[in-house]
Amino acid sequence: MLQALSTWLHGTKLSWAVAGGVPWIWPLCETLHFMGLALLVGIVGVFDLRILGMAKGLPVGPIQRLMPWAILGFVINLITGSLFFTGDPFQYIHNVAFGFKLLFIALAGVNVIVFYVTGLYRHVDGIGPGHDAPLAAKLVAAASLFLWIGVMYWGRMLPFIGNSF
Amino acid sequence: MMPLLASIENTAFAAWVRESSSLWAYPTILFMHTVGLGFLVGLNVAIDLRILGVAEKLPLAPFEKFYRVMWAAFWINALSGTALLVADASTKLTNRVFYIKMTCILFAVISMVLIRRRVFGAAADRAGLAAPARALAAASIVLWAGAITAGRLMAYFGPVSGAPGLQNRLP
Question: How far apart are CA B169 and CA B171, in angstroms?
Answer without folding.
Answer: 6
